[in-house]
Amino acid sequence: QVQLVESGGGFVQAGGSLRLSCVASGRTFDYYAMAWFRQAVGKERELVAGITWSGGSTFYGDFVKGRFTISRDNAKNTVFLQMTSLEPEDTAVYYCASPEDSFYSGAYQTYEHDYWGQGTQVTVSS
Description:
Blueprint: E1 3-7, E2 10-13, E3 18-25, E4 34-39, E5 46-51, E6 58-60, E7 68-73, E8 78-83, E9 92-98, E10 115-116, E11 120-125
């Protein structure tokens, strides 16, 4: 059974930074792309960032504008999201997700992701 467990959310002032982590279990982590999505109150879930199984390619939502970095440590079955220059508009629940298919290489559409974590709240104050 695939499990994704996020951590690292919290409360931060505008301009601050946070680092989210997601530990995966239940299958061979190295074979699967990973992604971070977010959902703010009253809004649809949107892609924040995705990373291929090897870490060799990354993809970001347009709003990121160089502020966030996704990375992974395959030895630790963990994917990270380093967030800097946070804005109040970044306030949302952040979810770790992964597709069913191994060696996925796509545009990280929400519907393509079969496994989701429980989410971690990020709140940015102005």
